[in-house]
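The instructor's notes for this session suggest beginning with a concrete chain rather than abstract definitions. Hand out the sequence below and ask the class to guess, before any prediction is shown, which regions might be ordered.
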Amino acid sequence: MTIKITEQAAKKVKEAIESQLETWLNSGMIKTKNEVELGFKLGLLGGGCSGFKYDRKISEKDENDHVFENHGVKIFMDPKSYLYLQGTTIDYVSDGLEGTFTYDTPMASGSCGCGESVNF
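After discussion, reveal the predicted structure:
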């Protein structure tokens, strides 16, 4: 099963990747934006009010990560998280000036009200 990302979420991820590249470029960590390949890293951490928390960041690919690509965005996921998150769709929902990533995870048996924590 694949991991999907909506167009709206992909747009926000692309903005975050561009911002990260600019920061690294301006700080001298990289000389050109083509030196690194960044993507949306999604995983799970123990904790949260439902047992697991979604862990997301803009990151380079780790050696054993699964890689998925939708709407021009690469999604990286470690093998253990993939066991639980396969089939997940990543979306971005705006509410006025605020916005947040949401996750439709078919294997989840429940989640907390804020959507940041999930159980299986």
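Then share the key points. Helices lie at 7-27, 79-85. The domain at 4-28+38-107 is CATH 2.60.300.12 (Hypothetical Protein Aq_1857; Chain: A;).
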